[in-house]
Amino acid sequence: MTPSVRLQEMIRVIRSARTQGEERGIIQRECADIRSQFRQGDNGERSHSLAKLLYVHMLGYPAHFGQMECVRLIASPRYSEKRIGYLGAMMLLDEKQDASLLITNSIKNDLSHSSQYVQSLALCTLACMGSAEMCRDLAPEIERLLRASHSYIKKKATLCAVHIIRKVPELAELFTPSARTLLSEKNHGVLHGAVVLITELCERNPDTLVQFRKAVPELVQIMKGLVTSSYSPEHNVAGISDPFLQVRILRLLRILGHNNDTASDAMNDLLAQVATNTDSSKTAGSAVLYETVLTIMDINSESGLRVLAVNILGRFLLNNDRNIRYISMTSLQKIVQTDHNAVQRHRGTIVDCLKDQDTSVKRRTNGRVITVIHSALFHLQSCTGTVTCPCAGGDVRDETVPNLIQLITTASELHCYTVHKLYRALIKDIAQQSLVQVACWCIGEYGDLLLKGECEEIEPVQVTEDDILDALETVLQSHMSSPATRGFALTATMKLSTRITDNVDRIRSIVSIYGSCIDLELQQRAVEYNALFKKYDHMRAAVLERMPVMDKNSPGHTNGDTSGEIKEPDTSKPKPVEAGLLSEPASQVCDLLDLLGGTDTPLQPSPAPTSTPTTTSSADLLDLLGGLEITPGEKFSLYRKIYMFGIITIKKKKKKNSKNVTVTLIASNSTQNDITNFTLQAAVPKSVQLQMKAPSGNVIPAHGLGQVTQTVLLNNPNKASLPCFRFVQLSFLLN
């Protein structure tokens, strides 16, 4: 059998394999045979063995052991071996491979070869996988070949020059003089490469625009020749003479005519001729017309020409090809802002596209062209969820709920009207989850306004406490309610316990039911609310009081605007204690939960300061004492609302291999008032024994004039992870 038959036979055997394991076995045997052929040296079979290896590589199997064989074959004087070697280099090598540097000298020699076919092999390889170093070394050779006598070599050298410019942009000036002369060639392949090269030069270096704008008349003449030329079988595609070259020339004209009246005037007549004489019934003609439209709209063209371009896009909307309709709609959305009246003539056609079965065409149609927005909203009722977000309902974005709540809180004069309207919407339909969440929030906040029934904007309706609780229970029990919606409803029910008088026991019963709910979020809320009813009933009114007005610039309420920056509070100076705090009765005790306002967001502990003591946020304290590692010497601040009253320093001391840990807490007071009756309590897991020594005192002088120290001994027989604080509570009085 001849070598070519052996390759064909290998392909036939591999394709006849019935299992993947059988195919792998065939590949392994062939690769072993190929390796042995490579080791035998120059036996005339190396090129055929490499060809077989390249087929194996195409199937996805490793073929890296053939890289050095590619280098050897490229250096061979035989064209048949050199051809396979260059093909292997393009497939098996890239610029990251060290072996690619070994072929640089061979490529340079072949670029000066007497055979144009050997030169073309070297040019193709350099254009395919040439690294920046290879491009720098071989750029002069490529520039020389741009002036070669054979158009075959010029075409490949031009495309190779494009690759060099992309790899090494600073070499662009080397090819600028030769690029202009290539436009005088008659060969379409050379012209195509020249236009691509000039386009690359203009995009990489805007300074070259002035030089190449002088070539606009020449480009216009070439384009006219293509439009008016007679039938040529060599270049004709679906009745269009070389549409690939036409598209490339139109793109270059668009770059040269942008923001330049002289260049734009020189190409206006040509663009009108192309727009009127090109047949759009075939894809090739539509491609040329589309590039023509883009060029007309991007240069300083005449108004009549722009209207013609919009009319072409209007005809595209009637095309059966969905891709053509899509690009037409995409272009119209860009044009509508500048040529509104021209687009207005095609409003009916645009509205008809809303009925298109292709979702991408619908998306481009609705929400973009403002003049047909009302029709778009009408048709959106039958669209998919990704398209229907302008219709609200269940398809609004996640941030819509908090943004709407923020807007409601700022409009205090509309609270009564809002809660009445949302209550009516809630009892009518609970399918729209986002609306139900906002309604539940408003009922929980402004339920007292709903019970009064005094709303001037709408007809007064008498609503009882049972009516409101029935509506919220419906939301809680509905299978349509999401866990988030049930959370809103449960919180609203709890808030109503401070806004109604006769049904508090019913609210307590509703809340207790969800203490064993399978949903952990609802269960946690219910357990906490039950604790408010029992252990902390004296605090319930304060905890559930009406929310203050939300600042849209505060964290979490950006209303979609992320441009604003959040400024850190200035903690360099102690802030004065609120006057209201000084007037509180001496018997009132403030614990840690009330001080910090509560948080359920897990945060990472702040690093220990290395120089001047700084203060961290109150949320850090909860996290610091909630199970994370305590850093010895770490300082943190306690707040009541935003008013700092002191700093606690934690020092941990543990001997090596000891089960005992000593923790020292040092409290200081930076406010203007003394802190009295200061106590500290802590809880640890059952595996750790806790012993709290007596504090050094219970009064912390103001202005940092004194401090209180308390020592805590931890016995950790099981050597569990420390610290083990599960709960820490501070009690104190502000004098």
UniProtKB/TrEMBL annotation:
Membrane topology: Peripheral membrane protein
Keyword RNA-binding: no
UniProt keyword terms in alphabetical order: Cytoplasmic vesicle, Golgi apparatus, Membrane, Protein transport, Transport
SMART domains tied to this protein: Alpha_adaptinC2 (SM00809)
Basic and acidic residues compositional bias, start-end: 564-576
Primary location recorded for the protein, binned into one broad class: membrane
PROSITE patterns documented for this protein: GAE
Protein name, as recorded: AP-1 complex subunit gamma
Organism the protein comes from: Cyprinus carpio (Common carp)
Record lineage: Eukaryota, Metazoa, Chordata, Craniata, Vertebrata
